[in-house]
Amino acid sequence: MSAWTFLWAFVVGGAICAIGQVIMDTTKLTPGHVMSILVVAGAIADGLGVYDPLIKFAGAGATVPITSFGNALVHGALHEAKVHGLIGVITGIFEVTSAGISAAIVFAFLAAVFAKPKG
């Protein structure tokens, strides 16, 4: 890997995060709304076929931000729809994203067990 790989990952990932921050700073939207907007933007970008080239170009800069979750939802649904038809739309969503969601649940549980809330 060259230094350019890391530079472009930083630039693209930073740009995605900066867009989210600008939306929060210039509107009265909550972080949850902004997160939803970024997930939908990633889904739309995958539907238009532009997210995969972005991943090839920026690597982790495109796969780490929340937009990648929207990309994964649409990507899995479209792939499984080709293989299994209409039912594949639903199963594809779960198949592609289940590991990430499961990890989030497990780590959230562990954080709740071991962290002391301030109160």
TrEMBL record:
<dbReference type="InterPro" id="IPR014204">
    <property type="entry name" value="Spore_V_AE"/>
</dbReference>
<keyword id="KW-0812">Transmembrane</keyword>
<dbReference type="InterPro" id="IPR005562">
    <property type="entry name" value="SpoVA"/>
</dbReference>
<dbReference type="Pfam" id="PF03862">
    <property type="entry name" value="SpoVAC_SpoVAEB"/>
</dbReference>
<feature type="transmembrane region" description="Helical">
    <location>
        <begin position="57"/>
        <end position="74"/>
    </location>
</feature>
<feature type="transmembrane region" description="Helical">
    <location>
        <begin position="31"/>
        <end position="51"/>
    </location>
</feature>
<feature type="transmembrane region" description="Helical">
    <location>
        <begin position="6"/>
        <end position="24"/>
    </location>
</feature>
<protein>
    <submittedName>
        <fullName>Stage V sporulation protein AE</fullName>
    </submittedName>
</protein>
<feature type="transmembrane region" description="Helical">
    <location>
        <begin position="86"/>
        <end position="115"/>
    </location>
</feature>
<keyword id="KW-0472">Membrane</keyword>
<keyword id="KW-1133">Transmembrane helix</keyword>
